[in-house]
Write a structure and sequence with these properties.
Four Helix Bundle (Hemerythrin (Met), subunit A); Rossmann fold; 2 domains; R15Pi
Length: 327
C-alpha cells in the first residue's frame, strides 16, 4: 500500500498484477494502468481540487513504482494524468475519465491503424526481411496482404530463443511465402529483400531504436545494401525519458539460453553474456511507422511531445519533484 490518500482497490490490484507480471506486454500494461487511473478518479471521495489531484498522483505513483522501466506504463500515466485540468473536482474527474477513454480507444485502433500505414510502404511483389517476432511488424504485412498485394518474407530465426519461428508460422497463416534463414545468413539474403521490417521494444527521443539483439547489425547491413529499414511501433513504445537509445539499460538474460550446462562443463571456465536488446542509431532507420503516421527518426520527438509532454513531465509526482530522477 502507498502512504497518503486512500487508493481504489482496482489500483492496488492492478499494481500487484503488473509487479508480478500477471499483467505483461506493452499494450496490456498500458490499458491496465489507464483503467486503474479511471477507477481511482471514480472512487476518490476528495472534495476539493487539490485533494483530488493528490489522490490521482498517489495512484499514479503506486502504478509507476511497479515496473518503471516498462515504457508503456509511464506513457499511460502521462497521457491520462497529464490531461487532468480544471478548477473543480467534477471537471477534473471528467478530464481524467475522458483521457483514459481516449487512451484505451487509441490502443484498440493502434495496431490496425499502424498496419495500414506500414502497408502503404509495401508494393505488390515485395519481399520483406524480418527479425524476431513483432505483432506490429506483422500488422504491416497483414494489411498489405488484405490490400491484395503478394508479399514474400525472409525470416531470420533470431537466436537464442528462435522467435523467428513464431513469425514464420504466423506469416504462413497469412498466405505469405516464407524462407527461414539462420541469423548469420542475413547479409547474403538482403540482396533478395526489398524492405527490412522490424518492431521495437522502445524508441528514444532521437529516434534510436531499442529492439531484439541483432537488429542493429541487420540495419547496418541493410543500409550498406541499400535496403530500406522500417520500424513498426505503436506510440506507447515511445520513450520520452531517453535522449538516446544508448541511455536505456539493456537486459542481460540467463546464460542457459545460449549454452547448456553440460556443454559449459566441457568447454571450461568461460564468461557467457546474453544481451536481450541492442540499439540501432537513427541514421540507419528510414521510417518509424506508428498509428499516427510514418516519421523520419529525427522527427519522432515531436510526436512524443504531442502525446506525452516533455521528457521531464511526470504528472504522478508532487509539484516540484517531477522529472528529478529520469531513468
Amino acid at each position: 500500500m502507498t502512504d497518503g490518500p486512500p487508493l481504489a482497490e482496482a489500483v492496488d490490484d492492478t499494481a500487484d498484477d503488473i509487479a508480478t507480471m500477471e499483467i505483461r506486454g506493452a499494450a496490456t500494461i498500458a490499458r491496465a494502468a489507464a483503467d486503474a487511473v479511471a477507477a481511482q478518479a471514480r472512487a476518490t471521495d476528495a472534495d476539493d481540487p487539490e485533494a483530488f489531484r493528490s489522490s490521482m498522483r498517489a495512484a499514479g505513483r503506486r502504478l509507476y513504482d511497479t515496473r518503471p522501466t516498462a515504457v508503456s506504463l509511464p506513457n499511460a500515466l502521462r497521457y491520462t494524468l497529464g490531461r487532468m485540468e480544471g478548477d473543480d473536482v467534477d471537471t477534473l474527474r471528467d478530464a481524467v475519465l475522458a483521457a483514459a477513454t481516449a487512451f484505451t480507444d487509441r490502443l484498440d485502433r493502434a495496431q490496425r491503424d499502424l498496419g495500414r500505414v506500414g502497408a502503404n510502404r509495401l508494393r505488390d511483389g515485395d519481399t520483406v526481411m524480418t527479425h524476431c517476432h513483432s505483432t506490429d511488424a506483422l500488422a504491416c504485412v497483414e494489411a498489405a496482404v488484405e490490400q491484395g498485394k503478394s508479399i514474400s518474407a525472409i525470416v531470420k530465426e533470431t537466436r537464442p530463443r528462435n522467435q523467428g519461428h513464431i513469425t514464420a508460422a504466423e506469416l504462413r497463416e497469412l498466405g505469405v511465402d516464407v524462407t527461414l534463414v539462420v541469423d548469420s545468413a542475413a547479409r547474403r539474403y538482403l540482396d533478395e529483400a526489398d524492405h527490412v521490417v522490424v518492431g521495437a521494444d522502445s524508441i528514444a527521443a532521437d529516434g534510436g531504436v531499442v529492439n531484439k539483439i541483432g537488429t542493429s547489425g541487420l540495419a547496418v547491413n541493410a543500409r550498406e545494401r541499400g535496403v530500406p529499414i522500417m520500424v513498426a511501433a505503436q506510440t506507447i513504445k515511445l520513450h520520452p525519458d531517453t535522449l538516446t537509445g544508448h541511455t536505456v539499460e539493456i537486459e542481460m538474460r540467463d546464460e542457459t539460453e545460449v549454452i547448456a550446462d553440460a556443454d559449459r562443463a566441457d568447454i571450461g571456465e568461460i564468461t557467457v553474456e546474453n544481451p536481450a536488446f541492442d540499439v540501432t542509431p537513427p541514421r540507419y532507420v528510414d521510417a518509424i511507422v506508428t498509428e499516427s503516421g510514418q516519421f523520419p527518426p529525427e522527427s519522432i520527438v515531436t510526436l512524443m511531445r504531442e502525446l506525452f509532454g516533455e521528457s521531464a513531465d511526470r504528472p504522478w509526482e508532487e509539484p516540484g519533484t517531477a522529472g528529478a530522477t529520469p531513468e
